[in-house]
Amino acid sequence: MPYTPPAPDVLDSMLTQVSYDKAGLVAAIAQQHDTGEILMIAWMNQEALRETLTTGRVCYYSRSRQNLWRKGETSGQIQRLVEARLDCDGDAVLLLVEQTGVACHTGRRSCFYQAFTPDGLSILSAPEIDPAQLYHTHA
């Protein structure tokens, strides 16, 4: 079923329930809606969350660039919103998404590809695509 955005007045009311940190950000976890796979964590400010809930295309806030970052605008690896949830404290958002391609800038499906083991970090998955190919850069 396609995502249906809330009415503007309902959206305004919902956004007041979010507890943003001192920098005006809230943690956002992206999860593949049908498999439960955790894809990534990023940050959203109110503008990014509003855009995501209005358009159904996931938008984050880049702390390094200090501007909005629409997932896939450079790489083509977009996230379409299926459902968004707010946690009990209001300080984290769970985004159930339909991920096109890989979610991680390393070329992997998920950013969570390293496991803590008794012998150190263990790599769980190889890149599915070369990051230089994703971002049209030279290695």
UniProtKB/TrEMBL annotation:
Binding site for Zn(2+): 88, 104, 111
Residues noted as binding Mg(2+) in the record, renumbered to the chain: 87, 89, 91
EC number in record: 3.5.4.19
Reactions performed catalytically: 1-(5-phospho-beta-D-ribosyl)-ATP + H2O = 1-(5-phospho-beta-D-ribosyl)-5'-AMP + diphosphate + H(+); 1-(5-phospho-beta-D-ribosyl)-5'-AMP + H2O = 1-(5-phospho-beta-D-ribosyl)-5-[(5-phospho-beta-D-ribosylamino)methylideneamino]imidazole-4-carboxamide
Pathway in which the depicted protein is active: Amino-acid biosynthesis; L-histidine biosynthesis; L-histidine from 5-phospho-alpha-D-ribose 1-diphosphate: step 2/9; Amino-acid biosynthesis; L-histidine biosynthesis; L-histidine from 5-phospho-alpha-D-ribose 1-diphosphate: step 3/9
A single Gene Ontology CC term: cytoplasm
Pfam families in alphabetical order: PRA-CH (PF01502)
Cofactor note: Binds 1 zinc ion per subunit. Binds 1 Mg(2+) ion per subunit.
Keyword terms: Amino-acid biosynthesis, Cytoplasm, Histidine biosynthesis, Hydrolase, Magnesium, Metal-binding, Zinc
Cell compartment(s), UniProt: Cytoplasm
Alphabetized GO MF terms: magnesium ion binding; phosphoribosyl-AMP cyclohydrolase activity; phosphoribosyl-ATP diphosphatase activity; zinc ion binding
Main location: cytoplasm
Cofactor field: Zn(2+); Mg(2+)
Phosphoribosyl-AMP cyclohydrolase domain segment(s): 40-113
Biological process, per Gene Ontology: L-histidine biosynthetic process
Matching PANTHER family: HISTIDINE BIOSYNTHESIS BIFUNCTIONAL PROTEIN, HISTIDINE BIOSYNTHESIS BIFUNCTIONAL PROTEIN HIS7
Family per similarity comment: Belongs to the PRA-CH family.
Cited function: Catalyzes the hydrolysis of the adenine ring of phosphoribosyl-AMP.
Quaternary context: Homodimer.
Protein name as it appears in the record: Phosphoribosyl-AMP cyclohydrolase
Species per Swiss-Prot/TrEMBL record: Acetobacter vaccinii
Species lineage: Bacteria, Pseudomonadati, Pseudomonadota, Alphaproteobacteria, Acetobacterales
Gene: hisI
